[in-house]
Amino acid sequence: MQILDLRQVNSRTLETLFEEEARCWLDELHWDYRPSLQLIKKFIDARSLGGAAALDNGRAAGYGFYVLEETKGLLGGLFVSPRYAQAAVSQRLLAEMLAPMRALPHVDRIEAQLIPFGTSFDHALVEQKFRLYPRQFMLLPLAKAKPAGAPISQGLRLERWDDRHFEPCARLIQLAYANHIDSDINDQYRTEEGALKFLKNIIILPGCGQFLPDASFLVKPVASERLIGVVLNSAVSAGVAHTTQICVMPGYQRHGLGLRLMEATMQALKSRRFHAITLTVTTQNDRARELYEQLGFQTVKTFAAAVWQV
Q: Which of 192, 219, 235, 238 could form a disulfide with 229 if both were Cys (CB 3.0 to 4.6 A apart)?
């Protein structure tokens, strides 16, 4: 098995892998991953994407990629064909990707949220000194939803998303995730600047699907423009949406606003002929996980968010 720098191969060499990966995302997660793969191919062919590829006598066995953001590295993907020893090849690819990032003196943190197909990455990540945070990928067929008919609290109003809310929403995210386990996983939540970058990634870029402003909602006080809650959703395949963000301001939590935001989402999606919605949740986030289970969501895959810190 030959391990090459990703910049030494072209996307045609990896085409069979991309096709297998796209089938896994669609079959297991109901997610059309092809738009993301088109972007990955573009960067590979431009020789501008860090990563590694595993070739067996010239045949693609697996690949992974990473990106660098100032002092942080992000493992963006890792996939090995089930035709090969997935655990062993994944371990080698992971080591090859981590070595150049860790060699950079300014990189002091590496994050990963790798979706496993056919094998777990947990052992390999622990061996590389990552701290793991179990997460769940959950699915709700909208026909099986269990709405509670939660009313909006008196003195609050529900509105649809508008792009003028980028910066207020970034402030809301930073405040909602202060001292929260999810800010340990994604350090963008810790600052308004980072939260704004996160919002632009999920709303503007195609990696999280096609943003659905008509199925994304905000909660505000009646007499104020201050945001106290938000839910954002994107279409990820025909008839399937994904909740990319939901949060409520401290002080307003535990009053049913998360439930109300999810019910508004489900109603809006049903009216647009969507048949399912997915989301991810950190297992230790008991309140959020219990809310989703109350609504009828079921876990279809578990994976680990992982963080390495100097």
A: 219
Q: What is the largest CA-CA distance in the chain?
A: 67
Cα radius of gyration (the chain): 20
Tell me the CATH number for domain 139-302.
3.40.630.30
Segment 16-50, tens digit of pLDDT: 999 999 999 999 999 999 999 999 999 999 999 99
Is the distance from CB of 79 to CB of 62 less than 8 angstroms? yes
Categorize the per-residue pLDDT at 150 as very low, low, confident or very high, splitting at 50, 70 and 90: low
| Tens-digit pLDDT profile for residues 169-196 | 999 999 999 999 999 999 999 999 999 9
pTM over the 0.70 mark: yes
Q: What is the DSSP letter of 14?
A: G
Q: How far is CA 242 from CA 37, 90, 209, 262, in A?
A: 18, 27, 8, 12
Overall average pLDDT of the 55-65 stretch: 96
68 Cα distance to chain centroid:
17
- Say how far apart CA 61 and CA 75 lie, in whole Å: 18
The correct answer on CATH 3.40.630.30 for the domain covering 2-129 is yes
**How many other C-beta atoms are found inside a 10 Å radius of the C-beta of residue 203?**
20
Tell me how far apart the alpha carbons of residues 114 and 76 are, in angstroms, rounded to a whole number: 7
The yes-or-no answer to whether 2-129 and 139-302 have a common fold is yes
Cβ atoms of 305 and 132 within 8 Å: the answer is: yes
Mean pLDDT score of the chain, rounded to an integer? 95
**Spatial distance between the Cα atoms of 97 and 265, rounded to a whole number of angstroms:** 38
Beta strands in 50-130 (DSSP E): 50-56, 59-69, 72-80, 109-113
pLDDT range class, residue 146, cuts 50, 70, 90: confident
3-state percent breakdown (helix, strand, coil) of the chain, nearest 5: 40, 30, 30
